[in-house]
């Protein structure tokens, strides 16, 4: 086939990809005369208007949840009111067993430090409140939805517990009148609905100021930016298993372009130690779940430790490739009994099938059906939490910086040892934006080239990007 035909087909492919970019309204790529008779590719683009109204987005969500939670059907168990928890893979209610696990893991993380006075921002129907408040002296729960708060009240029917709970209708960034010396603030499965990182910073700043030194801000269920493409590829594979590779690739791009939730790089949170006064240390944790679903695979939890900055403890890190199986890690702990064993880049078997899906889509090859769960000797966060059972070690799990495959780090510290969150973790390469929320204005040529690079050969990426004003 003549080279010119290939170039023309490549231009059409580039134009189709650029048209799927969330900040591009219209795209045209032309082959123009170039040096040595080889045509240059020139992209002419019309920008898509970008809304910057965070207040409008919050108001829209508030109206939506008022309608959702105003439904009259009461759940059989008011303490397990999971209205609205729908799977992205089939549109059905999420598996109750998986949701129970998700709730139990979050509650266990909060109660591990035995907080007596807790504020929860965005309590929803009271899934966490109903389980944490009975262990507390006082519990303040806020939500912007009056209908949600009515359902939350039913989640704590015991009079003794209800007397400890105060329900308040307000937005997450409004802590007016709340105490400034609580043991912890819980913000769980909420930040994905925030309009942008500036709003999140404002909420976190208020939360940190409300917590006494030595307390914790728990930020749960954060959608992972490094796994953003992998998540959408997994949904495309589940919903369109027989689609052609090119169609699956286009579907992933469309889903990325129109994802309205806030998706965040863990580097945003680790940077708060330097950025936000009162943050002593940060932990970014994978979810140690058994069930494989979008909550356990593509979301993570964050703990902001409040107080004076702790002295950083530097430790030698070993690569996960040195250990064939998790069993080899346990043998090292049991036999050598090191004071600290720090291992980085442990592949997460829970996420691995979805990562393979994404890689296959990028290559244009068929995907394989997922297995129902990881093999017994595969590494998952859940398996590693049990690895040192019976041995005198404490474990800190974290996400490996700079990785896009869900890999994590593990540090076993022989008791008593240093504070786990004071241990320095490896830093990865800079990934660029810290969230998927696009800033106003058109993207740069470098951004557009990077956007096209996974899908096009280098010589098919346009040589020039020209922005044009939309007609009218």
From TrEMBL:
| One Pfam assignment | Methyltransf_12
Protein name, per record? Methyltransferase type 12 domain-containing protein
InterPro entries (UniProt xref): Methyltransf_12, SAM-dependent_MTases_sf
Q: Which residues, by range, are in coiled-coil regions?
A: none
The root-end lineage is:
Bacteria, Bacillati, Actinomycetota, Actinomycetes, Micromonosporales
The residue ranges of the Methyltransferase type domain are 119-216
């Amino acid at each position: 086939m003549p080279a010119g035909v290939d170039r023309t087909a490549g231009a059409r492919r580039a134009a189709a990809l650029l048209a799927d970019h969330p900040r591009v309204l219209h795209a045209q790529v032309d082959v123009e005369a170039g040096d040595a008779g080889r045509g240059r590719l020139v992209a002419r683009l019309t920008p898509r208007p970008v809304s910057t109204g965070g207040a409008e987005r919050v108001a829209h969500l508030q109206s939506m949840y008022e309608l959702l939670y105003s439904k009259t059907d009461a759940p059989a168990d008011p303490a397990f009111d999971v209205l609205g928890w729908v799977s992205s893979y089939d549109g059905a209610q999420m598996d109750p067993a998986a949701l129970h696990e998700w709730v139990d893991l979050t509650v266990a993380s909060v109660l591990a430090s035995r907080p007596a006075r807790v504020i929860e921002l965005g309590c929803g129907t009271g899934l966490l409140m109903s389980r944490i408040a009975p262990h507390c002296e006082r519990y303040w729960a806020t939500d912007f939805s009056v209908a949600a708060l009515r359902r939350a009240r039913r989640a704590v029917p015991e009079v003794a517990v209800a007397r400890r709970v105060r329900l308040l209708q307000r937005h997450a960034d409004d802590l007016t009148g709340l105490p400034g010396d609580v043991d912890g603030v819980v913000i769980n499965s909420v930040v994905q609905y925030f309009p942008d990182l500036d709003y999140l910073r404002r909420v976190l700043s208020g939360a940190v100021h409300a917590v006494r030194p030595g307390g914790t801000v728990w930020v749960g269920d954060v959608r992972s930016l490094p796994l953003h493409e992998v998540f959408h590829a997994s949904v495309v594979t589940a919903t369109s298993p027989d689609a052609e590779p090119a169609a699956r690739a286009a579907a992933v791009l469309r889903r990325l372009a129109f994802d309205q939730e806030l998706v965040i790089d863990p580097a945003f949170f680790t940077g708060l130690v330097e950025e936000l006064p009162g943050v002593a240390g940060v932990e970014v944790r994978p979810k140690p779940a058994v069930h494989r679903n979008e909550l356990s695979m593509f979301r993570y939890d964050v703990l902001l430790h409040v107080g004076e900055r702790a002295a950083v403890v530097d430790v030698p890190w070993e690569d996960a490739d040195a250990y064939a199986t998790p069993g080899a890690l346990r043998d090292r702990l049991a036999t050598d009994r090191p004071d600290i064993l720090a291992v980085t880049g442990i592949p997460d078997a829970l996420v691995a099938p979805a990562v393979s899906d994404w890689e296959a889509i990028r290559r244009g090859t068929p995907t394989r059906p997922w297995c129902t769960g990881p093999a017994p000797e595969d590494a998952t966060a859940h398996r590693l939490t049990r690895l040192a059972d019976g041995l005198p070690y404490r474990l800190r799990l974290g996400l490996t910086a700079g990785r896009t495959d869900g890999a994590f780090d593990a540090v076993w510290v022989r008791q008593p040892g240093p504070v786990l969150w004071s241990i320095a973790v490896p830093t990865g390469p800079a990934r660029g934006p810290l969230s998927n929320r696009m800033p106003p204005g058109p993207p740069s040529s470098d951004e557009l080239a990077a956007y096209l690079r996974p899908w096009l050969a280098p010589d098919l990426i346009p040589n020039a990007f020209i922005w044009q004003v939309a007609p009218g």
